[in-house]
Design brief:
Layout: H1 3-21, H2 26-41, H3 46-51, H4 64-76, H5 80-88, H6 104-114, H7 119-127, H8 139-154, E1 159-160, H9 161-176, E2 181-186, H10 188-191, E3 196-197, E4 199-206, H11 209-217, E5 222-228, E6 232-237, E7 242-247, H12 253-261, H13 264-276, E8 280-282, E9 285-288, E10 291-294, H14 298-304, H15 320-325, E11 340-344, H16 355-364, E12 369-375, H17 387-403, E13 408-416, H18 427-430, E14 435-439, H19 448-460, E15 466-467, H20 485-495, E16 498-502, H21 511-521, E17 525-528, H22 540-549, H23 563-570, H24 578-585
Parallel strand pairs: 4-7, 11-12, 12-13, 13-14, 14-15, 15-16, 16-17
Antiparallel strand pairs: 1-3, 2-4, 5-6, 6-7, 8-9, 9-10
The protein binds 2'-deoxyguanosine-5'-triphosphate and calcium ion (2 copies).
Length: about 575
């Protein structure tokens, strides 16, 4: 199967869809959809056929007109007819054909009479009872459309950042190996390091736009080509992730990067400020009267409207523009400033590497300390530790600390917060440890009030040093629950407990908002990998990304402190026995 053939097929399919919605005669529509199917199943590449001078009209169902269009697509990447049709009809309208119950005639009605263009808008119209008022639709059809769309759209379509990064990195490498492609950037929510991304937005500059586009749609991981034009194309990868590509002029690269990094809210606020100052800003540059005054780099765009460059993770219209105007953008924490990792698992429970292997990985990262904090006994699925096994682990750590130089292993536990707010291990056991991470792993269904009380009670325990994110459901999962975070953060402040930002990509959810709240309330945040193997320690970078979104600087983060500085911050009330305190300090 050749990418070239699939690309041509996609153009024909879209033409067929658009002609059908436009009410074109059925034979003409079918000619294009048949041609699309033929191309999809055709072994030899049409471009090679053309290069060899073969006559495409020998293919079944391909007349002179279609053959000329195939040649046009091969040569230009698109087709004049499709471009004409696209000008007449919004892009999203063809998406509606995929909705069960919607054929071209109904789609045309929805678009013309209700002005709905996207599946989301159709769902809203169905819920508002507007669809049943149209001819050809009744209440029953409306309900069917509503049900199937509600199901379709509720499927989690957003992908976790770390998973998306895997696909983005591979695709960027593929594009990098293209002659004439000069600059490549992944913009959008990916660049802002949102916990999840809806799709990838890639920008490139290239000597020849169509070369970049062909390389893009020819990527082996592409499942379908959704759109293909001179400077804009879109594909869906086999993993389901949609990727948009835009080829932009070099002198507009910075302006396009600002525009497509977004967020939309940030761009709108930026545009408003630019207008106030007499400038116009768009994806091509910054303009004063009709003159273009900036746009090749992002810095030039921000500078032209009187601002310092704002880091992408901050571009959410959460006060960053005012801060930039006042010269008060935060100096964000850098990954290299982390001095240790306070939450690791090992093969003693459900981890995949031994403590020795985890130590070796921590050395590579230049850490001064790590803390082992495995699950407590209640987590039987994770082979959680009881008091006896925890004691064995403490003794093993003492032996390791006695002989290993340059890195200190702290003794911790990730203890379950039981449903009534007590902890899963006796105080006597917790008192022996250097740190205690308290976490909720069950009882997600409790009401907001009870959930909050439960966590507040856990914070009253004199041994808790870190509170794991109380909403630590997996991203997008329904079981991530609701708590009164402000009360919790204030209580943590009063009890000298720190908040943990788990960098584990499965565990991030609303992290940025809560960490920003912690910062505002003066609670330190520990950026921990929660790694179950050495590879996962590298995921600290996602934690750092979330920390950026929360505006955290070095001083706001607990584990930017060296060993000597951090030990007193891990100590809690007077409950900790003197012996263990002095031992911990003897490092
Ligand atoms: P996502 O993909 O849902 O995770 O979120 P984004 O932020 O990547 O959104 P996306 O992919 O729809 O668009 C990428 C960027 O393009 C977005 O952050 C800002 C820009 N953009 C898209 N639509 C508009 C718009 O209507 N106005 C403005 N100013 N910018 C837009
Ligand atoms: Ca996006
Ligand atoms: Ca997009």
């Amino acid at each position: 199967m050749s990418a070239q053939n699939l690309a041509a097929a996609a153009v024909f399919e879209e033409i067929a869809d658009r002609l059908a919605i436009q009410g074109e005669n059925a034979f003409r529509v079918r000619a294009y959809s048949n041609a699309a199917r033929l191309l999809q199943g055709l072994g030899p590449d049409v471009k090679q056929k053309l290069d060899r001078g073969e006559d495409l009209t020998e293919l079944p169902g391909i007349g002179a007109d279609l053959a000329a269009k195939i040649r046009e697509i091969v040569e230009t990447g698109t087709c004049g007819l499709l471009e004409d049709l696209r000008r007449k009809m919004p892009a999203a309208v063809t998406e509606l054909l995929k909705v069960p119950g919607l054929g071209p005639k109904r789609v045309a009605l929805l678009w013309h009479d209700l002005d709905v263009q996207t599946p989301e808008e159709v769902l809203r119209a169905a819920r508002d009872g507007r669809i049943r008022t149209l001819p050809r639709f009744g209440e029953k059809v409306e309900r069917q459309i509503e049900a199937s769309l509600a199901e379709q759209l509720s499927v989690v379509t957003r992908m976790k950042l770390a998973t998306a990064a895997h696909y983005a990195d591979a695709l960027v490498r593929h594009l990098e190996q293209t002659k004439g492609v000069e600059r490549i950037a992944v913009a959008g929510s990916f660049r802002r390091m949102r916990e999840t991304v809806g799709d990838l937005d890639i920008l490139v500059t290239a000597r020849k736009a169509n070369v970049a586009t062909e390389r893009f749609i020819g990527y082996p991981d592409v499942a379908v080509v959704l759109a293909q034009g001179e400077t804009r194309s879109a594909v869906r990868l086999k993993c389901g992730l949609q990727v948009d590509l835009r080829v932009v002029p070099a002198e507009s690269f910075g302006a396009a990067l600002v525009y497509f990094t977004g967020s939309k809210a940030h761009s709108i606020a930026l545009r408003r400020l630019a207008l106030q100052r007499g400038f116009k800003i768009n994806e091509y540059g910054v303009f004063h009267d009709e003159e273009r005054i900036a746009g090749d780099t992002e810095a030039s765009v921000y500078r032209a409207i009187g601002l310092p460059e704002i880091p992408p993770e901050l571009r959410e219209d959460r006060g960053e523009i005012d801060a930039a105007r006042a010269g008060q953008l935060p100096r964000l924490i850098e990954a290299g400033e982390l001095k240790g990792d306070l939450h690791l698992h090992t093969s003693a429970t459900d981890g995949r590497n031994s403590l020795e292997e985890m130590i070796a990985a921590a050395r590579v990262l230049g850490f001064e300390y790590i803390a082992v904090a495995e699950n407590s006994r209640r987590a039987s699925m994770a082979n959680g530790l009881d008091a006896a096994r925890l004691r064995q682990q403490r003794e093993a750590i003492d032996l390791i600390n006695a002989k290993s130089k340059g890195i200190r292993v702290l003794k911790g536990v990730e203890v379950d917060i039981l449903e009534d707010g007590r902890l899963d291990l006796p105080d006597k056991v917790l008192a022996e440890l250097d740190l205690v991470v308290a976490a909720v792993h069950s009882g997600f269904e409790l009401s907001r009030a009870r959930q909050t009380e439960r966590i507040l009670r856990a914070l009253d325990n004199p041994h808790v040093t870190l509170l794991a994110q109380p909403n630590e459901g997996s991203v997008g999962a329904r079981e991530s629950f609701d708590v009164d975070m402000l009360r919790i953060v204030r209580k943590a402040k009063a009890r000298r407990v720190h908040l943990e930002l788990s960098a584990h990509p499965d565990r991030v959810d609303l992290v940025d908002k809560h960490c920003r709240m912690a910062k505002d309330e003066g609670v330190l945040v520990a950026i921990d990998s929660n790694a179950h193997d050495t590879g996962e320690m590298a995921q600290l970078r996602y934690g750092v990304g979330q920390a950026h979104r929360a505006w955290l600087g070095r001083d706001d983060v607990l584990n930017t402190r060296g060993l000597r500085e951090i030990m007193p911050l891990l100590e809690r009330d007077q409950a900790r026995p003197k012996a263990s305190r002095s031992k911990a300090r003897a490092a």
